[in-house]
Amino acid sequence: MIEQIREKARELLESGELDVVIGYAEGSDPSRTTPIFCRKPEDTDKLVLDGRCVNTLPAYLNKRHEYPKKGWKKTGIIGKGCDIRAITQLVAENQLKRDEVYIFGAECEGVVAHPEKWDGSLHEGNCASKCSSCDVKIPLDTDFYPGEKPEVDRSGPYLVTAPALATLVKMDDEDRFAFWRDDFDRCFKCYACREVCPHCSCNICITDRTMPSWVDQAAHTKGVFGWHLTRAMHLVGRCTGCGECTRACPVNIQVDLFNQKMKEVIQESFDYKSGYSMEVKPPLITYNTDDTENYIR
Amino acid sequence: MAKIGVFVCQCGNNISRTVDTADVAKDASEQSGVVFVEDYKFMCSAPGQEAFKKAIRDHDLDGCIVSACSPKMHEATFRNAAEAAGLNPFKVEIANIREQCSWVHNDKEIGTAKSKDLTHMMIQRVKYNRPLERYRMSMTKRALILGGGIAGIQAALDLANAGTPVTIVEKEPSLGGNMARLSETFPTLDCSQCILTPKMVEVQNHPLITIRAFAELEKLDGYIGNFKATIRQKAKSVIDKDCTGCGDCWEKCPFTVESEFDMNLIKRKVIYIPFPQAVPTVPVIDRANCPKFIKDKCGICADVCGPDCIDFTQEDEILEEEFGAVIVATGFELMPNVYKEYGGSSMPQHLIPKKMNKKQRAAQPRSTSGRLPDVINGLEFERLASASGPTGGEIRRPSDGKKPKTVVFIACVGSRDANKGVEYCSKICCMYTAKHTMLYNHSVHDGKAYVFYMDIRAGGKGYEEFINRAQDEGAEYIRGRVSALRKKGDKILVKGADTLQGCAVDIEADMVVLATAMVPQADAIDFAKTLGISYDKHGFYSEQHPKLMPVDSSTGGIYLAGACQGVKDVPETVAQASAAASKVMQLFSKEELMREPEVAIVDKDHCMNCWDCVTVCPYLAISPEEVKDRDGNVVKMVANVNPGLCQGCGLCNTVCRSKSIELQGYTDQQVYAQITAFEGAFV
Amino acid sequence: MSKGIIRHDFEPKIMGFVCKWCTYSGADLAGTSRMDYSPHVRMVRLPCSGRIDPQFVIKAFEQGADGVIISGCHPGDCHYNEGNYYARRRNLAFRNLMEFNGIDTKRLEFSWISAAEAIKFTQIIDKFTNQVRELGPNEGYRVLLDPYASRLVKSSEESAA
To answer: B658 vs A206: CB contact, 8 Å cut-off?
Structure first.
């Protein structure tokens, strides 16, 4: 599988059709892979693709980063199904033009929850929870797919609630508040969750704005509450569920639980799944006159 | 450091009864930035305002709070006073301590505490109020009227008589619209053309009115006061200015096709005017059917034309014109496709051209298969009853030309039933059905008219009396629906129900007339998108406010008249057209266009062009703009707000994640200041 | 006429974000009709319920509000045609988010109040004030207000355990 991708990537780099191919290469230790930017055809030999490839590479395609400004006309990118969803969403949000990227897609068996849990193979014990409810193991929108792309039925609800989410939802408000308070107490606002996110695309983040400072800059718990609520609210209907925010968190706060919860809400209320279409407008910038209003007096 | 003045009004004892205004003033004076406080009996009185102005001048204030009544009462008063004293009016804020405090709380302690808090919030807010300037814009004092029916005609005449130059764009070759098709009008039974055609002639002769018949609006750019319209003048193949309207060409033209104006009941020539009184009386060549254009044969019209004004090579002309206001008066049509239920299409069998092949048949506007020829709709009946119609005003059925002895009229066809058409009431059908029965009874003295109805809705001046008159003149009203129409010999068996008697009714009718629902023009929604106005789910154009702004569209400078906005009869249409015209006059009565500065502005450095604001803007006021470097290369795209279109709702500000667009006057910083000043200092 | 003033041990702080066309006018009408209602609400006048940003609500809670009221025109009545439809969606999402964060959604009120509904306005204010009063202070957030207090609470909990 990866051989075919290597071959194709080499071919396209040689022909000059692509200026760069973003993929994964062996990392500093055997349990990890690292993102690689292949500029030369021979670089493609380093490409790997397996359960250790956790990073969401489309984050690099986001305009916020310098990479898109390097003058590369067309960028190749190796994507897992969930990454390609992120690309679709970026295109839908006008952060990327579809014809500026060339997507190498491959069937994905899932990825490890955290590189530390890698023991040479992928199994139930170390697989990321997002993979259990994945309906894009055969990716959606690809330019290159090794072999024949099978037809997949994606009409199912795919609302498999992560175990952590299920327990949290069952708690009463006070306990849930205490849970988050304890978690957020650890947060020191390194903003790793923001930096890895493929959808945080503002050139200036609301938390860096000071007039007014809607989010307290200080890393005390109040400011952390404000930050995570804001972040979750900004990703409503946009998050494609790669879970990188949680993986990147150095103090193990499960920030993607917010996103997962909102994903459920959005899907139930507005029948919307982000990352599946470049045309359908995200739910918060559109409306129906007969939307639910059972919470309104 | 801010220099803020706080003026606490006692409002006689309206405020001071439950609020210790002196205490509020004293408390305000302790707030940072406050350099002047005043506690006064009536701030809005002349001496109060003078004191207000004097304080601004003496203390060189850069922000003022008036703690008084609701901003709806006196915000404008104090802003004007501030402007007179040299302070930007948008640096004045009102703390509402009367309607929302002193009048609703009876405890002085509570009232005072709440007043202090409300005043604090405004003090913090006003520190971040930016001085704003009202936008002054020049405008083109010309009006564009889309549609030359009675609504367009009325609006054009009203405007032109008030001195405004007007252009009417009409897609058909003549003005007149649907009203020109009507025979007589309810409730007076006066002849429609007799009252309409003099107005059409008046329009033609008016020096300030330009008629663009056989033309369509392609594009509308710009905003209130400054619209730029792209109009396609379709090729008439006749040179307007030379044509005398003598009629030689259409008399000699040997080719005929169905007349759209006469609802396909009769034929017209290929070079034609839709009806004899057409305005302008300039014929057009129907190129789709003219042999000169199909196979380059004939050309008789050019031979017989005296002034030599037939031009077969004429091409569509694209005109770009500027206007300050637009009136949309595009009218209605009758719901097509109801015949499936009631047996067929609108085109009588005997009139279907024999040579038509299968493809042509399919291309006909309505399916012709299985239609009962003597089932017609209201407008077709109007043509049958019209003195200028195909039968010269004698009511004869389309299939064989016999006088129908029994006619069944069916009301609410396609209306008031979401499953079989539209859920709204088509409103005018009760009245015109009554009129039809009378016209029929006047024409066929021994005939019998039956009306199947659901309810009679006759809520207009003289309308109920009119219905009674129709019944007195012999129309038999049966309350119930019709389940089926079947052909029986040369008659139509109408199977209906009489719900008052509780029995089934079968009537053998010679002709059936369907009171079909009025619906917007088939292309109404596309046209609304061209104009940038909003519309409801049926395609009727939405008014700005259902009660208080019934002629304004959602877009500033575009007004609505007639049935394009909702079902209407002629008097209502005329009233709305005059109202729209008066709105335009109101707009044009000023030298310059003044726009409130409370509009959105974009932080172009940080806009990340996700276009969420473009998507949510209800007024299409935001559009992408290119940012170029010195060499003219496009560096990036950012959002750009057109202050002429922005109405200041602030939706864009809310959806912008990086807060790169903000609503002036209600900026995030102002709201933030208010929130952080919130103490809830309630004892 | 007067409801009389009853002092409670706890008086909630309530912040209101309202649309100026409908709810703010409704509140003015309550004033001109001399209706009596709870004095706990401080309202911020905004052009449209669509202008109400979730940031406002978060900030209000951070600022010590025990409850927040959001109110605008009824669906179909929006002065800007569609602002309240967007508000309705946004607040549905935001409400769920707050709930997931462990903030009692009884502290967050969303209502449609037209300019004529002065009675509804006073009823909603009274009812909501009582509701928040029964819930008591927004303890969780109040602890957060003081960054050091949260640590103290935690350590005291630990020592108690």
So the answer is: yes
**Averaged pLDDT of chain A:** 87
- Judge contact between A221 and C150, C-beta under 8 A: yes
Instruction: Tell me whether residue B390 is in a domain.
Output: yes
What CA–CA distances, in Å, run from B305 to A259, B60, B249, B253, B553? 76, 80, 6, 11, 45
Q: Is residue B680 part of a domain?
A: no
CB of B351 within 8 A of CB of B538?
Answer: no
- In chain C, what are the domains? 14-160 (3.40.50)
Are the Cβ atoms of B682 and C39 closer than 8 angstroms? yes
Upper half-sphere CA count for residue C144 (Cβ side, 13 Å)? 30
Residues B629 and B588 in one domain: no
Cis peptide before B280 (omega within 30 of 0): yes
Give pLDDT < 70 ranges for chain B: 339-371, 680-683
Buried-exposed string A51-79: b where 16+ CB fall within 10 A, e elsewhere: bbbbbbbbbbbbbbeebbeeeeeebbbbb
Partner residue opposite B658 with nearest CB, options A203, A212, A286 = A203
Q: Which chains touch A (3 or more CB pairs under 8 A)?
A: B, C
Query: Which B residues, 44 through 103, put their C-beta within 8 Å of a C-beta on chain C?
Result: 70-72, 96, 98-101, 103
Report the CATH number that the domain containing residue B604 is assigned in CATH: 3.30.70.3270
Same domain, B629 and B557: no
Q: Which residues pair with B486 in a beta bridge?
A: B493
The number of distinct structural domains making up chain B is 5
The domain boundary, picked from B595, B630, B653, lies at: B595
Q: Which parts of B432-489 are beta strand (E)?
A: 448-453, 476-479, 482-488
Together in a domain, B366 and B511: yes
Alpha helices in C19-110 (DSSP H): 23-32, 54-62, 83-100
Q: Does B123 touch chain C (CB under 8 A)?
A: no
In a domain, B673, yes or no: no
| Domain shared by B197 and B85, yes or no | no
Residue B172 · residue B211 · CB < 8 Å: no
Q: Which of residues 128-157 of C touch A (CB under 8 A)?
A: 140-141, 143-145, 147, 150-151, 154
| Structural domain includes residue B126 | yes
Contacts of B608 in chain A (CB under 8 A): 63-64, 95, 201-203
B610 and A93 within 8 Å at the Cβ level: the answer is: yes
Is B611 part of the contact surface with chain A (CB cutoff 8 Å)? yes
Spell out which residues of chain C touch residue B111, defining contact as CB-CB under 8 Å. Answer: 39
Q: C100–A289: do the CB atoms touch at under 8 Å?
A: no
Q: Which among C81, C107, C123, C133 is the top mutation candidate for probing chain B, defined by the most B β-carbons within 10 Å of its own β-carbon? A: C81
Q: Which domain holds residue B457?
A: 338-520
CB-based contact, B627 to chain A, within 8 Å: no
Same domain, B358 and B448: yes
**In terms of domains, do B366 and B488 share one?**
yes
Question: Got the DSSP string for B138-184?
Answer: -----EEEE--SHHHHHHHHHHHHTT--EEEEESSSSS-GGGGG-SE
Q: Please state the rounded mean pLDDT for residues C62-69.
A: 91
Q: pLDDT of A80-132, one tens digit each? A: 888 999 999 999 988 888 998 999 988 888 898 888 888 888 888 888 888 87
Gap between the Cα atoms of C39 and B101, Å rounded: 8
Q: Does B444 lie in the same domain as B343?
A: yes
Q: Which of A181, A202, A211, A262 to mutate to test the interface with C (most CBs of C within 10 A)?
A: A181
Q: Summarize pLDDT for B317-376 with one digit per residue, the tens.
A: 999 999 999 999 999 999 887 766 665 444 444 444 445 555 554 444 333 335 678 889
pLDDT one-digit tens code per residue, B564-580:
999 999 999 999 999 99
Q: State whether residue B14 sits within 8 Å of chain C by CB.
A: no
